[in-house]
Structures are given as structure tokens and as C-alpha cells.
Specification:
Layout lengths: L1 H22 L21 H8 L13 E9 L7 H18 L6 E8 L8 H5 L6 E3 L12 H26 L8 E6 L2 E3 L3 H19 L5 E3 L14 H22 L6 H15 L1 H15 L7 E4 L7 E5 H12 L9 H12 L3 E5 L3 E3 L10
The chain binds 2-acetamido-2-deoxy-beta-D-glucopyranose (2 copies).
Keywords: Membrane, Transmembrane, Transmembrane helix
Organism: Daphnia sinensis
Protein name: Transmembrane protein 246
Length: about 375
């Protein structure tokens, strides 16, 4: 007994004061993160990607119906090539996806230029050769906004409507009925990760299947939630349950695998709770994804959970919910403390519509400073 207490003390000191501070100093979401090792923001290889790429000529000849439209909302960001990075990555993923032999639909993309002065957004103008660009002309904007949050919201409405309109045009051109389709709205600093398209597809199929039960569409699915809000120390009951479950399981495995006969169970459970929180839950989610990729398929590591408030870098809507969202947003005024993300979240709760979040994230949020605020 006394040995166990001494051993535990040594273990706590070793773990939290010596091993973790050294091991995790470059782990971005751990409590020991000391900065450094940030990915190169203005990776010049992005620009060379476009010089190698043939513009999307085969889009026009693709006869499959478009079940998903990816719309990138963009404004000027001096000194950064966020948009190019997003478009390059998306282009890679889309080419692979559409080139696959699925007959059940294609994915298309467009860029929505909502800069105050769209003519000055040179990066978006240059990318017209890759994806079609729609823009919100100066005449369509009020002369001034009381609050930037409200401009952000109007931009979003414009892009949602433009997406619906563009999908309609494609369908007419192909002489197909548009049917149910989906719109994924990405902000221009949300770089797609490898699993984005297959996992989105999987959840679309899942939600479609579920829908036949009660005939009500989901309102939105968030494909990104800020990592800093993904930790255990958050007031979400299911996450606290997960925290305890993971810790209890770890103690159990320790006993079984190492054949230890532990007595001070509560201290061991607290040890693992502290350990997982200090490592950072986003890292645990990455580890889970890595495990699933080896044991099953990476897509199996993603979960659909009830939506949490905050942030709209990557939002999935159905054609019906996109209509609903733009109609709702058109009826409100946004201000500090009531931005579009909060408004949508509250609306979903009040109207009893289902909103989800996917975990782990399917995009990487690279814009440390958004044009408007910290995000
Ligand atoms: C969305 O698609 C469904 C299925 O085709 C259709 O019935 C519905 O009217 C569409 N919704 C809107 C708002 O266009
Ligand atoms: C966008 O569509 C919604 C819903 O149809 C409508 O209420 C709103 O006026 C439209 N706004 C713009 C800017 O087109």
C-alpha cells in the first residue's frame, strides 16, 4: 500500500513536471505548448500548383447530377494566400473524388467574392480560371454598416442564395431536375483536410436515410469547431462522460495488460483524467483517427454530435435548409455578441431543428486573425 502511494507520487511528478513538458512543448493543443513549429502560412508551393494544373475542362462534360456544391466565401486578406491554399487543396480533393468511378453524383465548387470592392480582390480574380466566381457588387451593398458582423451575415446570405442559383443553372443546363442537393460553405481560411469529401458524403447519406423517419431535414452540420473548445474542460455533459470513461478504461487496461493490482483507483483515475486533458483532446482525436485508418477506414473515426455554439468556417446545408437559413438571416440584424453563428445556433434550438457538429474537424482553420475578429 505504502509503495503504491510513493509510486504514484513519483509517477505524478515524472509525468506532469518532467516528461510532458518536454514531450508536448510542440503539441499545439496541449497545455504545455510553447509555440513554434507553426505551419508555413504562405507556402509558395500553392502558387506553383496552379501553374501545373489544367483548368477544370471536364466539368462541363460530366453528366452526373451535382449532389454537393462547395462554395468558398472570400474577402481580401493582404499579405496572405489563404484563398489560393483552400482552392488548391479543394481542387486536388475534388479531382480525386470526381475522377473516382462513382455514378451517384459529382461535386462542384464555386468562389463567392464578397469583398467591399470585389474588383480589388486580385486573388479571387486570378482563380476564375479554376472555379466560377460570383461577386457581390458594390451596388448590392448598403453604403455603410453599423456593425461588421452584419456585413458578414449579409455576405453569407448572398453566398447561400448565389449557391442555390448556381446549382439551378447547372441543372437546367444538364436538363436534370435539381432534386435534393447540399451546399458546403467554406470560409476562405478553412483548408480542407484529406477526409473532407468522403466523410461529408458518408454523413449526407446517413442523414438522408434518417430523414425518411420524420421527414424533417437537418438545419446544418458544422464540419469545424475550434480546437481550443474541444477540450474536456468544457461544460458539455457528454464530454465529461467521455472523459471519465476514457480514464476508467485506461486504469482497467493498465491492470489487465500489466497485471498490476492497483488499490487507489480514484487516484489512478484522476491521474488519467489529468493526463488526457494535459495532452489535449484534439491530439487524442487525431490519435483515434490514426488508429481507425490502420484498423478500419479513416472515415469510421468521425462522429456526428449535437452542435456546439461558435464559428462557421465550414457549414453544410441541404437545399431546403440553405433556403431556410438565408430567409432567417435576412430577417435579423447581427451585432457584436449576436453574430451569424450564434444566431443560427439559437434559431436551431428555438425552432427545434437539428444541428450537428462533426468530430474531429474536417478542415484546418489557418486564419489566425480573421479580417473581422479572432476566431
Ligand atoms: C430541395 O429539394 C427537394 C427535393 O427535390 C425539393 O422537394 C425542395 O423543394 C427543394 N427545396 C428548395 C427550397 O428548393
Ligand atoms: C436570399 O434568399 C432569401 C430566401 O429566399 C430571401 O429572403 C432573401 O431576400 C435573399 N437575399 C438576397 C440578398 O438575395
Amino acid at each position: 500500500m505504502r509503495y503504491e502511494a510513493a509510486g504514484l507520487t513519483v509517477l505524478y511528478v515524472l509525468t506532469f513536471l518532467i516528461v510532458l513538458p518536454v514531450l508536448c512543448s510542440t503539441w499545439r493543443y496541449s497545455v504545455y505548448y510553447r509555440g513554434g513549429e507553426s505551419p508555413d502560412e504562405n507556402d509558395p508551393s500553392v502558387l506553383s500548383y496552379f501553374s501545373d494544373v489544367m483548368t477544370s475542362v471536364n466539368d462541363e462534360t460530366d453528366e452526373r447530377p451535382v449532389f454537393l456544391l462547395v462554395t468558398i466565401v472570400t474577402v481580401r486578406r493582404e499579405g496572405h494566400f489563404y484563398l489560393s491554399r483552400v482552392v488548391a487543396r479543394l481542387h486536388q480533393l475534388l479531382s480525386a473524388y470526381n475522377g473516382g468511378n462513382g455514378n451517384d453524383g459529382a461535386i462542384r465548387a464555386m468562389i463567392c467574392n464578397v469583398d467591399r470592392d470585389p474588383e480589388l480582390h486580385q486573388e479571387a480574380l486570378d482563380l476564375q480560371t479554376i472555379y466560377p466566381v460570383v461577386r457581390r457588387d458594390v451596388q448590392q451593398q448598403p453604403i455603410s454598416y453599423n456593425d461588421l458582423m452584419d456585413k458578414e451575415k449579409d455576405d453569407y446570405i448572398f453566398c447561400l442564395n448565389a449557391s442555390q442559383h448556381y446549382h439551378e443553372q447547372i441543372s437546367i443546363k444538364k436538363r436534370q431536375s435539381s432534386g435534393t442537393y447540399y451546399i458546403l460553405v467554406l470560409e476562405d481560411d478553412a483548408v480542407p483536410l484529406d477526409d473532407l469529401l468522403p466523410v461529408t458524403r458518408r454523413f449526407i447519406d446517413y442523414l438522408k436515410m434518417r430523414r425518411s423517419d420524420d421527414d424533417r431535414d437537418f438545419f446544418y452540420v458544422k464540419l469545424y469547431h475550434p480546437e481550443r473548445l474541444q477540450n474536456y474542460w468544457q461544460p458539455e455533459p457528454w464530454r465529461i462522460a467521455e472523459w471519465i470513461a476514457v480514464s476508467v478504461l485506461s486504469v482497467f487496461l493498465l491492470q489487465v495488460v500489466l497485471g498490476l493490482r492497483l488499490r487507489r483507483h480514484s487516484l489512478w483515475i484522476i491521474y488519467f483524467m489529468a493526463l488526457t486533458e494535459c495532452l489535449g483532446r484534439p491530439h487524442l482525436l487525431q490519435f483515434k483517427r490514426w488508429m481507425f485508418a490502420r484498423l478500419a477506414s479513416p472515415a469510421a473515426a468521425y462522429n456526428l454530435l449535437a452542435a456546439t455554439e461558435c464559428c462557421t468556417p465550414a457549414m453544410l446545408f441541404s437545399n431546403t435548409s440553405a433556403y431556410l437559413a438565408s430567409a432567417f438571416l435576412s430577417s435579423i440584424t447581427c451585432k457584436r455578441g449576436y453574430a451569424k453563428d450564434t444566431a443560427l445556433y439559437l434559431y436551431a434550438r428555438q425552432s427545434g431543428r437539428q444541428a450537428f457538429v462533426v468530430e474531429p474537424n474536417l478542415v484546418q482553420h489557418v486564419g489566425r486573425v480573421s479580417t473581422l475578429r479572432f476566431n
